[in-house]
## 1
Amino acid sequence: MAEAATHGEVHRHPAPTSFIRKYIFSIDHKIIGIQYILLALTSVIIGMIMSVLMRINLSWPGSHIKILETLFPQGAPGGVMTAEFYLSLVTMHGTMMVFFVLTTAPQGGFGNYFLPIQIGADDMAFPVLNMLSFWVTFVGFLVLCLAIFAEGNATVGGWFSALGPAWAGGSGTVGPIGGWTGYPPLSALGKVAGPGQGVGLNLWIISIAIFCVGSLLGALNFITTLLNMRTRGMSLMRMPLTCWAWFTTAILALLSFPVLLGGGILLLLDRLAGTSFFIPGGLYVSGAAVPQHTGGSPLLWQHLFWFFGHPEVYIAILPGMGATSHILSTFARKPIFGYRAMVFAIFAIGMLGFFVWGHHMFMSGMSPYSAVAFSILTLSIGVPSAIKTFNWLGTLWGAKIRFTTPMLFAIGFVSLFVAGGITGLVLGQTSLDFFFHDTYFVTAHFHLVMGVASIFGMFAATYFWFPKMFGRMMHEGLGKFHFWITFIGVYAIFIPFHAMGMLGMPRRYSNFGEYEFLKNSHGLVLFVTVAAIITVLVQIVFYFNFIWSIFKGKKVANDNPWEATTLEWTIPSPPPHDNFAGIMPTVYHGPYEFSVPGAPNDYIMQTEPEGAAVSAGLEETSGNGGNGHKH
Amino acid sequence: MAATATSTNQVVDAVIGGGGSRGRNGNGFRKNGGGHGDDGLHYSPARYRLGIWVAIASIVMLFTALTSAYIVRMASSNDWTPLRMPKVLWLSTAVILISSVTIEISKRSLQRAKDSQYGMWLTLTAMLGVVFVSSQYAAWRNLARQGVYVATNPHSSFFYLFTAVHGLHVLGGLLALAYLLLRTRKRRETVEGELRRVGAAEAATVYWHFLDGLWICLFLLLFFWK
C-alpha cells in the first residue's frame, strides 16, 4: 500500500460540480457508460414494441390496432397495418436493435464504465472524445427516430418533401422498407422504389453514418486506453477477459465501421447526387424506366455492407463472451479454464470475422470457388468458438456454483450461444444455405446467437455490476423470475423459427395467408406470438427491478459483495470521480485466482501484495488454471 | 513453451511501451511485465502518438473501402470515361509534398527547443495547407467549366468523392495546426504541460504526413492506374 501511495497522483481533471457538466455533458467514463446503457434501454423498448406489432400482424392478419390508427393513419388505415408498414417495422426493428442496442450497451455502456477501472486507470485516454462519442451516437439515434416521423407523419413528412423530390416523405410507413441491410438498387432510387424509400431512407443512411463516427471515436479511445493506461503490474495477460473482449471489439469496430461509412456515402451520393455506384443501367422499377443511371454494381454494396456486417455481429457478442467468462469464473469459484486459450480464441474469432463476409452472399451468384473459400473460413470459426464453449464448461465442471442471477444469465448465455451457433455450421455450408437462405431458419440463427445471447450477456453484466454502479443490489427474487421466464421464452420463440424455416417460410413477408404450403403452420406462428408477448411483458419486471433498485434496493454490505478479484471491487460503490481516489493500484495477480489451495480466502484480489501469497507458500500454485503455470 | 510465451509478452510490451513491473511474478507467468501505470505522466506523448496511429488505421479502412469500390466499379462496366487531369493537381501534389517537409522541420525545431522556428515553420505549413485546399478547389472549378460534374461519369464521381473526403481530412488537419498555433506555441510551465504540447505537435505531424501519403496514393490511383 505504501508503495502504491508514493506513486499516486492527483487526477487530471477535477470533479465537476454543475448538474450539466456532471450528468449531461460529462467527461467521466462512468457517467458516459450509464448514458450509453440508458440509450440502449430506450432503444430496446422501441425495438421490442416493433417486434410485437409484427407478431400481431402475422398471427392475426387484419386485426385492428387502435393506437396505430391514431399514430399512423396512413400506414395503418383503420388500425390495420399495410404490407409496407410491416416491412418498415422489419427495417427499423433491425436497425434499432443492431446499432443502438447491441452495439451501444455491451461496448459503449459496460465497456466504458468498467474497462478503465479494471485496468486501473482513472479515466479513458481521451475523455472529451469519449463524451463526443456518446453525443454523436445520440444524435444518430435522434435522426433515426426522426425517420419514423418523417415517413409516418404527414405533417413532418411535408416539411421534408418541401426540400425536393429526393426528400419526399409522409408515405405512411415508419421508415424504409428494404430491411436493415438496405440493398440497392431499390435503396438507391428514392421514393419510386416504394413508400418509405424517400426521406426515410435518406435519414436512415445519415443516422447510420453518424453512428459510425460515434463508434469510431469510442473505438479509438478504447484501444489507446487499454494499451497506454494499464496500471503498474497489469500486464496484458493479467487483464480480465472482459477487457480482452472489449479490446477485440474495439479493433473490429475501428476497422469495420469505416467501411460501412464509405458504403453509406456512396449510397447517399447515388440517391442525392445522381451518381451510379450501385445503380445498373436499364432498370425498370414500378413500371417505369429509371433514366440517367448506368453501369453501377448492386453487389458492390453487398460486399461493403457485409465486410462491415459480419464483424458487427462479433461486435455485438464478444463483450457478452467477456462478461460471461468473468462471471462464470467468479460464481463457480474457480479460475477460468484455459485463460490463454480464451484470449487467443476471442482474438481468433474477431480476426476471422473479417474474412467471412461472403457467406451472406452465397445466393448472389458468386463463383462457386469463392463460395467454398468463404464457407471453409466460416466453418473454421467453429474452432475458436468451440474452444470457448469447452472452456466455459471446464470452468463449471466440478464447481460449487453460486446460482445468483448474474450466474444464471451467464449460463444462459452459454446455452444460447451454443444453440444459436450450431446452426451457423448449417448455414455456413453453401449447399444448405441455398435452401435456408431468406427463411425463418436464418432469422432463428442470428436472433439466438447475436441477439438474445448478447442480450443475456448484458443482463448478466447488469445484475453483476449493478451493485458497483449504484451501491445497491438488484432484487434477487425478481431477477431469477426474470431469468427463467425470459430463458424459456426466447427458446419458445426461436426454436419454432427453425421449424418454420425448414418448412420454407420466407422472411420479411407480412402475411402467409395465401400460401397453401404454409397453411398448417399457423398454430406455430400463433405459439411464437404468444411466447413473444409473454417474454416482452416479463421485461417490465427487469425495468422495474432496475429502477426500483437504484433507489430502494438493498445497500451493498461492502465493496465486494460477490467476492470477486478484479480491481473494480477494491473501490467504493459507486466509485468516486477518479476511480481510485488518486492512489493508483498495483497489480500482483491474475484476474481469476479463486480457490487457490492454502490461501485464507477462496479468492485472491489482484491487488493483494505478493508477499502475502508467497508466505502462504503459493508461488507455484497461483495461476489462471489450465495452461497458466507451466514454467 | 514457457520461454516462447515470455518472449512474446516482452515483445508486446516493448512495442507498446509497457513494463511497469517487469520481474514480478504473478499468475504463473514469469517476468510478464505490466502496463505503464503511473510511471509515466498522464499526458505522455505515447498516448497521442498511439491515438493518432489508431485513428489513421480507421481512415485507411475508409479509403480502402472507397478505393476497392473504385477498382471494382472500373472493372465491372463499360461506361468508364477517364478524366483529363486538371493540371493544377500537379501544384496540389507539389504543395502537399513540400508541406510535409516544412512540418517535419517545425517538429524537429520544437524537439530541439527552438520555439520561434517551430512557430514559423508551423505557420508556413498551415499556409501551404490552405494553398493545397484552394488548389484542389481550383481543380473542381476547372472540371466544372468543362461540364464535368459529380454524376457525369463514374470516374468523375470518384474524383470528386476522393478529393472531397481527403479534403475534409485536410481541413481537420488545418484545425489541428490552428490549435497548435493558437494554444501551444508558448512553452508550458509544468513538465506535464510541456510534454503535452510536444506530444500534440508530434501527433499532428504524423497525421499531416499521412494526409500527404494518402493524397499521393489517391493521385496515382485516379490518374495513373490503368
Note: Helices of chain B lie at 2-16, 45-75, 88-111, 115-145, 154-183, 191-224.
## 2
Amino acid sequence: MRQMMVALAVIVSSLSIGLATPAHAEKVCHNENETYTDARGNVVTVVKEVCVETGNGGGSGGGSSAGSSGCFSSPGHQIPCTTPEGYHWFDSQFCYAMNATSAYDPGNPVWQGHADGSLWACMGIGPMMAPAAGATFYVPGAGPAPPPVDPAVLAQQALDRMPLAKPTIHMAPQPPLMTYVGLETWLWMDPGQWADLKGGAKAGATSVTVVAEPVQVAWDLTAGSTTCTSAGRPWVKGMSSSEKTDCSYTFAKISDFEPGGEFPVAATLTYQVDWTCAGTCTTKNGSLGEVEGPLSQSAIHVGERQSVVVR
Amino acid sequence: MRTRSFHQTAAAIAALAGLTFTMAGCGADGDDPKPLPPISSSSTASTPTTSPSPTTQAWESKFTRKQRVEYDEALQRWESYEQRSEPIFAKGKVTPAAEALFKDYFIVWQNQLNTLRFYEQVGDKVVGLPTVIWSRPSKVTAFKGGMNVKIQQCIDPSTVKVKHAAGAQVQEKNVGPYIRKISLSKTDAKPYRVSELFDVTSGKKVKPCDR
C-alpha cells in the first residue's frame, strides 16, 4: 500500500491535467515510476512514459475526496477526481472505481441489504490503472456524477449521421455529347444540394446542434481542376452564347488518349461545420472545420473542332 | 488480481502434506466459520479438477447439503476460469477472446480487462497457477432470484512465474501461503460469476494462512 501511495504521489502532476479536453491540445510526455504488486506478491516498480494533453480546457469534476478543489491521494498530493475512462477516485477505497450499479442484481449481497443507492467497483490506481482491490462497495445515493460529455465528440457523432450531399454532376455540353478544346464547359450540381444541413445529438444533459454549410465544390476534370463557391449555374437549352456562369472549365487538350476516350470527372462538396451546445456544456460552441462530403464521379469526351479558313 | 489454482502433481501433494501444520488455523475474517481442526490429507487433493479441502468434516457440518452443492458449483466455475485464463495472462495481451472470457466469468469484467491491459502496458507475463492448498466456503446465501457463495482459499503463489519486462525493479517479498477470497453470484439467468476477488495483487495486505 505504501508503495502505491508513493506511486500515486508521483503521478499527480500529470493526470491532474489529463482530464482536460482542450480545443488546442498539445501532447507532453515524461517518464514516471509506477509501483504495483505482482501475482507472486513482489513489489515491482516500472518506469513508463506518460503523455498528457495540455491546453486551455477545464478539468472534469466528480470524485469523492473531501475538499472543494479536487481529490487527494495523500495530503498535498492532488490527483484527478475522474480518469479519462470515467472512473472516479474514492478515498475510502484508495482506488479509482467505476459505477457498477447496473451490473449487480437487486438483492446481491454487495448491496448490503440496501434497495437504493449505487455500487462502485475498484478498477485500479495510478496513471496506468495498476490492479487495485477487487472490491465492489456501496455508496448511498448516486455517487459522483458522470464526467461531462465533450460536445465536440457529440458534434462529430451528429455529423457522422448527417447526409452530406453527393453532388449530381451536370456539364454543358452534357455527355454523351462531347465538349471541345477551348470551349468553356459549364459545370454545376443540383441547386437543391447546395443547402445547409442541420443535425443534433444528445447525451445526458448535453445537447449539440450541428450546422454544415456548403462552401465550395472541388471539380477534378483529370486534365485540370477548378473550385467553385456555388452550385454553379445550370445551362438551359436555348441560352445564347453570351450567357455567363461562375463555374466552368476550359479543356486544353483532347481526351482521345484516355482510357475509354474520356476524362474522368469528379466533384466533391465541402462544408463548413460548426456546432453549438445547450444544457450542460464544457464549451458553448465550436467548429469541426471544413468537411468533405462524398465523391461524385462522371466522365466527358473532349474533342477538337475542325476550323475552316475562309478567305 | 491474477490467480492460479491447484497443480495436480505428486510434488504438490507432497507439499500439501508438509503444510498440514501450517494450515491448521488458516485465516479468518467476519465470514469465517469457527476455527478448523488440523487438515488431513484429503482425498480431493488427488482429484485433478478439485481444490483440496482443509478438512471436509469441519466445514461441511456447518452448511446444508444445498449450500454444499452451490459451493461445489461456484468452485468449479472459479477453477474453470483459472484454467482458461492462464494462457491469456501468460501471453499478456488484450484480445477479444480475453475480453469475452472475462465477460463470461466476472460481473465487473472490466476489472480483469484493466488488469490484463496493465500487464500488457508494463510487459508482464504471468505464467502458471498458484497452488491451492485448500478451499472452503465461508458463506453461502440466497437472494431473490440468485445465490452467492463466498470462498476462501489458502494458496501458495510461489508456483506462479512472473516475467517482467527489462528495466522493471523487483523487490522480492517471498509471500508465503495466504488467504484468497472469491465471491461468486449466480442468478436464474446467469451461471456463477465472480462478484468480488481479493488476492495478493489487490493492493491490500493479505492474510497468511498460518495466522
Note: Confidence is low (pLDDT under 50) at residues 1-49 of chain B.
## 3
Amino acid sequence: MEPGLLVLVGILVAVPLWLVFSYNRFISQRASMDATWAGIDVELQRRHDLVPNLVRSVQGYATHERDLFAAVVEARNRAVAVASGSNGVGDLARAEDALTQRLTGLLVLAEDYPDLRADRVFLDLQRQLVETEDRIAASRRLYNLEVAAYERRRQAVPSNLVASGFGFGRRDLFEIVDPAATHAPHVAIERN
Amino acid sequence: MGRRGSRGRAWACEAAATAAVTDRLPGTVRAARPSSGRADEVGRDMDRPVLVGLALVVLVGLIAWGAYAYRRRLEQSLADWLAREPGLAPTVSPVGLTPAQFADGFQGCPRGHRRYGLRWGVEGPLDARIGGLTATLTCAAFEWWWEERRQQTDSKGNTTTSYVTRRVPVAAARLPAAVPDHVQIGPETVFGRLGMSRSDHQLESDAFNRRFRVLAQDRMLTVQLLDAGLQELLLARYTGRTIELLGDLLVVAGDPGRRDDALMGPLRRLPPAREDVRELLAGIPAQFWRAIGADREG
C-alpha cells in the first residue's frame, strides 16, 4: 500500500476516534458538574431548612429583635425562591450572600445573651449550620474546579471545535462569601 | 651485584647456623631440606597467607569496633534526646503499629524487595494546634529502612543482583478522630504531570498539582483538607514528602530538610520530623476537623 494512502487511512481513523473521545469527555465533565451542583443544591436546601429553627430558638431569648428576625426570614425566603426558580448562578450567589449576612447578624446577637449561648438546642442548630456551610464551601470549590477544567477544554484548541459543534455552552463559577468562615465557632478539642 | 652476593652468602651462613643449632636441640626432628635457599622460599610462601589472614582479622576487627563505637555513640545521642524531652520513650511499635502494618498500610513506608523495618523509634506526647485549639497527641518518629534490588547485566549477559538499603525519617501521630478514607498526598508522578492520571485530585493551584499527587476515594474530603493555606504550606515545606491520613493516623515520611545538630547520624532528622507533624496539624483547616468530627471527640 502507498505510504500516502496509509497516512490518509490513519487520519480517517484517528480523527473520528479523537472526536468520540473528546465528545465523551465533555459529556463526562458536564455530568460531573451537574452532580457537584446537585450537591451544592442539597446543602443550600439544608441551610434554608435550618434558618427558621434557628430564628425560633433565638426569638425565645431576644424578643425585641423583631426587625432582625424579619430580615433573616425575608433573606431566607428570597434565597429559597431563587434556588427553586430558573435563575442563574450569579442570582443565587447574591441571594445566598444576603442570607449569610443576615445570619451573621443573628449569630452575633447570640453573643449578647449568655442564656442563649448555653441553650443546647441553639448550640446544636449553630453546629448544624456551620457543618452545612462547610459542605457548601467544599461543594462550591469542587464545582468551581470542575467548571474551570471544563472551560479550559471548551476554549482550548482543538477541543473548542467539538464544544462549539455539539453546543457545549459556557458555565459560570459559583462565587459566594464563605459562610462557614464567618459563622464557625472555635472547635473544642481536648485529647491526651 | 656484589652486595646481592654478600647478602646471599649471609643468608646461607645464617641458615647453616640455624640448622646446626636445631640439630643440637634435644627432641628436635630435623626436616629434610633440599637446600638452605629453597627452605627460605618455602618459609616465605607459608608466611604470606598467615600475614594476609592476620591483616584481614585486624581489618574486620577494626570495622567491627568502629561499628560498635558508632552504635554506642548513637545510643548515647538517643539517650540525650530522650532526657531532653520529657515523656519521650523508645519504642519498637510506634503509635501501636508493627513494621508489617506500616509497610502494608502506608505508601511512605515501602516494603522494598527483600527486607524492611524501622529503627530508632521514639514516641511521646506532642502539643499541637488542632482547629485553633491546643491538643496533646501521641506522636512517634523513627527511621524506616528497606532494601531495593539492583540488577546489572554485563556484556556477556551475566546478571548480578545486589541490594541497596534506603532510609527515610518518618513521623506518625494519633489524631483525635478517624478519617473515613485513606488520603495520600505524595510527589507527583510522570503520568500525573502529563495529565494521564484520572485518580489524582486536581486543585486550584497549578503549582500544587504539578508537585503533588492527591489520592482518596472522597474528593469532598480532600477539598476540605487542602485549602489554600495548606496547599501553600505543603508547597513551601513538604515537596517530595508523603503525607497520609488513614483512620486516626497521620504519617509523614520524607526528609524534613532540617537537622538537629545536638544529635548525630540518622537521629538528627527525627526531632524535625516530629516538629513538622505539629506544623502540619496546625495548618489543617478547621473545616476538615469538623468534617471528621474531631470537635466532638472527648
Note: The first helix of chain A runs from residue 3 to 59.
